[in-house]
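pipeline stage [seq->struct] | target=Very-long-chain (3R)-3-hydroxyacyl-CoA dehydratase | organism=Pipistrellus kuhlii | residues=229
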Amino acid sequence: MALPAWLQPRNRKNAYLFIYYLIQFCGHSWIFTNMTARFFSFGKDSMVDTFYAIGLVMQLCQSISLLELLHIYVGIESNHLLPRFLQLTERIIILFVVITSQEEVQGKYVVCVLFIFWNLLDMVRYTNSMLSVIGISYAFLKWLSQTLWMPIYPLCVLAEAFAVYQSLPYFESFGTYSTKLPFDLSIYFPYVLKIYLMMLFIGMYFIYSHLYSERRDFLRVFPIKKKNL
């Protein structure tokens, strides 16, 4: 006896992915709407307390995004595991280790700028993914999802590096995450962050190369004509 259409494995996978993308889209839409409304209401003052206003939702969205590694691993989402792992790890470290752990960093302008960049990329990506799962395709949206990262992603990395740089004095003063080990050994966390800064730019080159390769392959399969734009 044949299973109902909604119980077919492919349909269940698509339904799950649609719900996941919808949750992410709603979260990032809320962040974008909140940041926009606050900026028009309070101007530059809204940038200082961006983390206090939307930090929890951003943490939730970025935490849920770790499911994407599982999606790729089990094969329900077509993507490369290592580049996505590097992208997610990059954000998790900056958000939870650098920003969340230092209250003084949370009020910096760079946090607002970083959240704007992350939000722009994710809103476009999740919108395109959500519609693609249900068979709706817009050429311009696909093109935008494969193009927007080109100027935005390097700016994201620069903002992340600047956030790390601004956090160093506070990690040095408060000794957060620095610890002593047996045999007169110790971990001085500011040194770890300085090493991470170098790794950040090495990772950017790898991820940028991967995304550029994906975009090149995409444009071969889905050429965008001016009349479609």
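stage status: PASS
auto-comment: The chain has a mean pLDDT of 88. The beta strands are 179-181, 185-187.
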